[in-house]
Design goal:
The protein is an alpha/beta fold and about 160 residues long. The chain contains 3 helices and 9 strands, in the order E-E-E-E-E-E-H-E-H-E-H-E. It is globular.
């Protein structure tokens, strides 16, 4: 698109290939792109290592291999897409953009979603749903939204 600003880098936690383990798409082949940073501190969070943006991330080196290499953060978007392609991206039914809270990096989410979708998989966004401006800016690039509603009694904002 003309006039579109391109994001150069994205803060990640990890990128890996697996099977969706929850929700209505359980059992589907999924490439997980876990973004770093979250503005909530849910008592029951299963991935508190995603709360802060880290100086490094890990990227799986072969589809479902369980072997990872460490890379410096932030990661250039082109490098993320190349890593996804090396994991046989087109063989995945979904690419899950998860976190942390991906919508704290809405420009990166939009760019990554468009690039991944153009290569085959449907895009699933996992979000807490509070970053409404970010969601509005990327919704056209998302196929499925998994929104995890929070009660104020369960959350401490940063």
């Amino acid at each position: 698109m003309s006039g579109e600003t391109r994001v150069r880098d994205v803060s990640l936690v990890e990128v890996f290939s697996s099977i969706q383990g929850e929700g209505t798409h359980i059992g589907k082949t999924t490439l997980f792109v876990r973004f770093g940073g979250c503005d909530l501190r849910c008592r029951w969070c299963d991935s508190p290592q995603t709360w802060e943006r880290a100086p490094q991330c890990r990227i799986e080196v072969g589809r479902c291999s369980g072997e990872f290499e460490t890379r410096a953060n932030p990661v250039p978007v082109e490098e993320l897409i190349a890593a996804a392609e090396s994991l046989d991206l087109a063989a995945h039914e979904f690419a899950s953009l998860t976190g942390g809270e991906p919508l704290l990096q809405p420009e990166a989410v939009g760019e990554v979603a468009r690039a991944l979708r153009a290569r085959g998989p449907r895009i699933l966004l996992e979000t807490h749903g509070l970053a409404t401006d970010g969601l509005e800016s990327v919704i056209a690039d998302i196929d499925v939204i998994s929104m995890d509603w929070k009660l104020s009694s369960d959350v401490r904002s940063t």
